[in-house]
Design a protein that fits this description.
The protein is an alpha+beta fold and 321 residues long. The protein has 2 domains: 1-92 and 284-321, 3-Layer(aba) Sandwich (Aminopeptidase), CATH 3.40.630; 94-283, Aminopeptidase (3-Layer(aba) Sandwich). It has 11 helices and 15 strands. The mean pLDDT is 87.
């Protein structure tokens, strides 16, 4: 990573980080940089408002093939500024599966800001209707996952040669895919982080793919309140095997007793697989932005957005989960 500061004499007025990340476009290597933590005094002092534009101009000059991720969603200030500077912005869709409906209704923040929905949610909890509906919902989801039980998820300690085989088998199947060799994965998802759940997915002793997950008990979280939330953070397989990977990972995570399971996925196959496994789509606070040169390059290579394999494993990784 490279670190850059905006200086006014001896005063630091802002800065940003460029993180090198190799990607592949249909198997062809494409070296990109991730724009990390761009910040300036313009956020709090209108006098320095032009610093934001100067900062972005500087980072594009240094690294034309640039992307940003997260940013609080498309409605946040940074994506709005990037759009004005001709960056291409897109939402990385959010999917969720409710495992404990009463706890979900009591904690999910989107209901607290809507009086009518919040009142209805409180009513269903106090009358016991939420428990009945939740039991029915879980039964239907369990039946769906059981009927599709053709794959198994095994928790492993690290990524090895088996994951390199997956990488080699599928890296040409995606329009845009960050490098996910075993060396890269073990660097991103270190064994020193006890939160990380590495899942190897197999069918009839053949390795189909993998998923990287977390399961966290939150307390007064901005979005999740005090729910226990599991997340499919990252995953990889051939696109046609994505339903089996999502199903196996979901069955494994449900055994951990979460109130909610979530995932952000951009690629069309993974999005469809989540829906098939009983997930619903909700509002997303995770966005992607492509610099003008990178956007034009991908357009010239005829890579559609729905063929990008982007999730929370890219960029900053599984933070805030």
């Amino acid at each position: 990573m490279e670190y850059f500061l905006i200086l006014d004499g001896r005063k630091v007025r802002g800065g940003y980080i460029l993180k090198f990340q190799p990607f592949f476009c249909r198997g062809r290597k494409l070296d990109l940089n991730f724009l990390k933590l761009p910040i300036s005094e313009g956020l709090i002092d209108p006098v320095h408002a032009p610093l934001g534009i100067q900062l972005l101009q500087d980072c594009v000059r240094r690294s034309p093939n640039l992307f940003a991720l997260g940013m609080g969603g498309l409605s946040a200030k940074l994506p709005q500024l990037l759009r004005k500077m001709k960056w291409r912005t897109l939402e990385v869709p959010f999917y969720f599966q409710v495992c404990n409906l009463p706890t979900f209704l009591q904690n999910i923040s989107i209901l607290k800001g809507r009086r009518l929905l919040g009142s209805l949610a409180k009513l269903t909890v106090t009358t016991g209707l939420a428990s009945i509906l939740g039991s029915l919902l879980n039964a239907l989801t369990s039946i769906k996952l059981h009927l599709a039980a053709q794959s198994q998820a095994e928790q492993v300690g690290n990524f090895g040669e088996w994951s390199d085989q997956i990488w080699n088998d599928c890296k040409e199947d995606y329009g845009l895919l960050g490098c996910r060799t075993s060396e890269t994965l073990n660097c991103w998802y270190t064994s020193s982080d006890p939160r990380l759940i590495r899942l190897k997915v197999t069918q009839d002793n053949a390795v189909l793919g993998w998923a990287l997950a977390v399961c966290t008990q939150h307390c007064d979280h901005k979005y999740f309140g005090s729910m226990k939330v599991a997340a499919i953070v990252d995953c990889l397989s051939k696109p046609e095997h994505s339903p089996l990977v999502v199903q196996a990972a979901t069955r494994f995570l449900r055994q951990l007793g979460p109130d909610l399971i979530i995932s952000n996925q951009l690629h069309q196959s993974w999005r469809h697989s989540l829906i098939q496994s009983g997930y619903l789509r909700g509002p997303s606070n995770f966005a992607m932005a492509l610099s003008p040169k990178l956007s034009n390059k991908l357009d010239a290579m005829k890579v559609p957005t729905e063929d990008f394999h982007i999730n929370r494993g890219d960029g900053d990784g599984p933070i805030h989960l």
